[in-house]
Amino acid sequence: MLAYRHQFHxxxxxxxxxxxxxAQLVLALTRKDKPFFCLDTHAGIAHYDxxxxxxxxxxxxxxxxxxxxxRKDAPSELAPYLDAxxxxxxxxxxxxxxxxxxxxxxxxxxxxxxxxxxxxxxDCESLVTQYARDRRVTVQCVDxxxxxxxxxxxxxxxxxxxxxxxxxxxxxxxxxxxxxxAAHKKFSTGVYALWYPLMEPAAMGGFERGIVATGIRxxxxxxxxxxxxxxxxxxxxxxxLVVNPxxxxxxxxxxxxxxxxxxxxEAGAGYRKTAWLVPE
Length: 280
Ligand SMILES: C[S@@+](CC[C@H](N)C(=O)[O-])C[C@H]1O[C@@H](n2cnc3c(N)ncnc32)[C@H](O)[C@@H]1O
Hints:
With about 280 residues, the protein is α/β, with parallel strands linked by helices. It has one domain (about 5-280): Vaccinia Virus protein VP39 (Rossmann fold). Helices cover about 40% and strands about 20% of the residues. Strands 5-4-1-6-7-9-8-10 form an 8-stranded mixed β-sheet, sandwiched between helices. Helix 1 (about 15-30) crosses helix 4 (about 80-90) and helix 1 packs antiparallel against helix 10. The chain starts with 12 loop residues before the first helix and ends with a strand. The model has no long low-confidence stretch (mean pLDDT about 95). S-adenosylmethionine binds next to loops. S-adenosylmethionine binds near residues 6, 41, 117 and 164.
C-alpha cells in the first residue's frame, strides 16, 4: 500500500499549474483530425471532494484553485482548465475538483483513447469503477514506469504521456529521467509532460543536467515558485517539462504561467519561468 494519497493535496497550487497546462496540451492534440492516445501514468482518483476530511486537514486548495475560482480576469488560455473545474460544480460553488483523468477525458473526441495507470490499489479500484462503461478509457493497477514500456508506441502514433509522480520515494528524479529515456526510445514523436516539485537547488541542477544529458531535444520547461528559495515548510514550487510541445503551445504556456504566478505566490515571492531547457 502506498502512503501518498492525492486527496490531501487536491486542487493545490501545483494542481492548478499542472492542470492548466495539461488541458492546453490535450486541446492542442485535438486540432489535428487524426486520433490520439493519452497515457496518464500516475492517475490518482480523478474526482476529489474538497470537503473530504483529508482535504480539509490542510485545505491546500485554498491556495490553489481557491485563489482562481472567483477571478474574473483569467486569460482565455486558462478556460479549458477552469471549464473542467466548473463542470464539476454546476451550482457555481467550489466543492469538487477534477483530477488529471477527468481533465483529459472531457477533451477527448470519440476516436481518441486514454489509459490510466494507478498503483494504489484502492485509488485504482475507484478509477476502474468510474470508467467501467467508458469504451475510450482503460484502467490498469500497475506501476506507471512499467506501463510506459507496455503501452508505447500507441497504435495511433500520436499521443500525450503525462507523468505526475507523487515523489514520495528516494531517487524519483532519476526514475523520471530513466522513464523518459525508455519511453522516448519507443515513441520519439510523442508529447511528454513530466511534473516535478522544486527541491533544493543542488537537486534541481542535477535533475536538469541529467535531462540535458539524455540527448532528447525540444524540451520546454515551465516553473512556478510561490515561496522564497530558502522556504522549508512545504514544497516551494513545481515545474513541468514538456517534450515535443505541440505547435503554438509555448506562448500559451507563457501566458498561463505569467498570469498564475502572481496569483498563486506568497506576496510576490519566488519566480516563474517558461524557457527551452533543450531547444530544437
Ligand atoms: C500526484 S498524484 C496524481 C495526481 C493526478 N495525476 C492528477 O493530476 O489528478 C500521484 C499518484 O501516483 C500514484 N503512484 C505512486 N507511485 C506510483 C507508481 N509507481 N505507478 C503508478 N502510480 C503511482 C499515487 O498513488 C498517486 O495517486
